[in-house]
Amino acid sequence: MTIKNKIIEAFEKSNELTAKELISSIGVSKQMVHLVLSELVAKQYLEKLGRAPKTIYRKLKATPLKPNGITLEVKDAEKEFLTKHFLMISDVGNLLEGIEGFQLWCEKRNEPVLKTLQEFIKTKQKYQSFYNNEGIIDGSHKLKTTYGEKIFLDEIYYLDFYAIECFGKTRLGTLLHYAKQGQNKFLMNRMMNEIKDRIINFIKLNEIDAVGFVPPTIRREVQIMKFIQESLNLNFPILEIKKISGIIPIPQKSLSKLDERIKNAENTFAVTEQRKFKKVLLIDDAVGSGSTLNQIAEKIKNKEVAKTVLGLAIVGSFKGFDVITDI
User: Fold this and answer.
1) pLDDT of residue 1
2) Terminal CA-to-CA distance of the chain, rounded, Å?
3) Residue 312 vs residues 45, 293, 297: alpha-carbon distances, Å
4) Distance CA 7, CA 29 (A)
């Protein structure tokens, strides 16, 4: 039996183990155990919890639904719709998709599954009218309503809404929220699998010749914007944008008023780029007020780095530029 098989067998017997426990029970080197554990995490067989020296590895498995003796008559088309659009993270940290996740979501809220499913489908279909032919939401018309004449972004888009009425976070909104808050590379990879091609196609269709990634405010071991940049692996010039702050960094998401966000973005981002481009794209994880992208666009144009600046976020708010505070 290989070392990998021995480790898998150990997790079949015990759901959670540390590397130290595996080294002791199997009798192999620390390096070999960590090598196999990394492989199993990458293959989504295990999840890594905590940080060294208190790291625990847990076998990934779905939370079983409560047996209720009811056979749901869900059509294949409805199951496919849920598989495409519904995802939740359970209260014990398991990722559930499709009908399995939706049934648990309904049970936790004491909602009838079949009736709620029809409401979910109708709600999602209502929001589909906001997507263009490329499946992307154009939020450009909201800029004038929010900023009047002080608009520096030429266009702004996002891949999905962060949340929708009654059902809360969208599939993409859920992935982004938990990936960022938990610094979870497994969820970041899941998210990138769903959006990478869409971002690359957007860049090609809009003839972008340089890309800028909005730098983070809060220091994290795993920065989601850095992860997005590395995952895209673009063969494009990357704009030099820096985040500067005082002794106490204030993240945009912590500010609830639009004027506070504008002032924060105006004074804490610096464009140090010296090259010249025709059309650049700014990428951020979420668009709330839009002030971050708009103020960076102003600095780009003031320095004559580019004449045209587009913004693209993974998710955005539905009502105007509502502030998103929990990402």
Assistant:
1) 78
2) 45
3) 33, 9, 12
4) 13
Quick: pLDDT tens for 99-145.
989 998 999 999 999 999 999 999 999 998 899 988 999 988 877 77
- Count of beta carbons in the 10 Å neighbourhood of residue 245: 14
**Within the chain, which residue ranges are assigned CATH 3.40.50.2020?**
131-316
When the pLDDT of each residue in the chain is averaged and rounded to a whole number, the result is 87
pLDDT in tens, 44-73: 788 888 777 788 999 886 444 444 445 568
Mean pLDDT of 34-42: 89
Q: What is the pLDDT of residues 149-163, one digit of tens each?
A: 688 999 999 999 999
Say how far apart CA 213 and CA 220 lie, in whole Å: 16
Residue ranges, CATH 1.10.10.10, the chain: 3-59
Cα(110)–Cα(190) distance, integer angstroms: 29
Q: Domain 3-59: which CATH class?
A: mainly alpha
Cα(315)–Cα(220) distance, integer angstroms: 21
131-316 is a CATH 2.40.50.140 domain: no
Split at pLDDT 50, 70, 90, the class of 253 is low
